[in-house]
Design brief:
This protein is mostly helical. It is built from nine helices and no strands. It has one domain. It is globular.
Length: 194
């Protein structure tokens, strides 16, 4: 996916009250600001230890480390916690946190163990099934699918990754960001100038 396509996807699939009406460039700027504000030592505010491990495992299945860094390298779980704490409405936050146990329930039904202890193939199968459900919702109800907790997890994972320095530098190759240029600004002229 090219950068413009990614920005368009982020803007169209947002479905979150806190981000409605933002232009694609603003969504990227907000993601960068969330990464910058947190720092590596900021305490988690929303996700408890088990939820953190679950989100890490899910994000790594979505964006695994290969020849490029993965979701963990990009600090996606901390990004998600910061977004939940600072930007989401209580209803959105509750929807997200109430949905995470669904990953464990599906893995227990499949293998008798929680999501984080399932093997990679089983984790991937569960994530694909959830993604298929969201896709079916999107086909039948349009943007209503954005209300599904898994759509939120997927969106935040991609957004957090693509606005992280490591994601922008090593995967998207868009770092450092272009600086502002005002080509029509008046030129200051000294004495004797035209």
């Amino acid at each position: 996916m090219e950068r413009r396509e990614l920005l368009r996807w982020l803007a169209v699939t947002v479905g979150l009250e806190c981000l409605e009406g933002l232009a694609p460039g603003d969504i990227v700027a907000l993601g960068r600001a969330v990464h910058a504000r947190g720092g590596p030592h900021r305490a988690f505010e929303v996700l408890g230890p088990h939820a953190q491990r679950t989100v890490v495992a899910a994000a790594e299945r979505m964006l695994p480390a290969t020849e490029t860094p993965g979701a963990t390298d990009a600090g996606v779980v901390a990004f998600i916690d910061r977004m939940l704490a600072d930007w989401y409405t209580p209803a959105e936050r509750d929807r997200f946190t109430a949905g995470l146990p669904d990953l464990d329930a599906r893995c227990r039904a499949l293998r008798g163990t929680d999501f984080v202890t399932c093997d990679d193939a089983d984790q991937e199968a569960v994530l694909i099934a959830l993604d298929d459900e969201v896709t079916a919702l999107r086909r039948s109800s349009g943007t209503g699918a954005n209300d599904h907790w898994f759509a939120m997890l997927k969106y935040l994972t991609v957004w957090g990754y693509c606005t992280s320095e490591v994601g922008m530098r090593e995967t998207l190759r868009t770092y450092p960001l272009a600086m502002r240029y005002d080509g029509c600004a008046p030129v200051a002229r000294g004495r004797g100038g035209p």
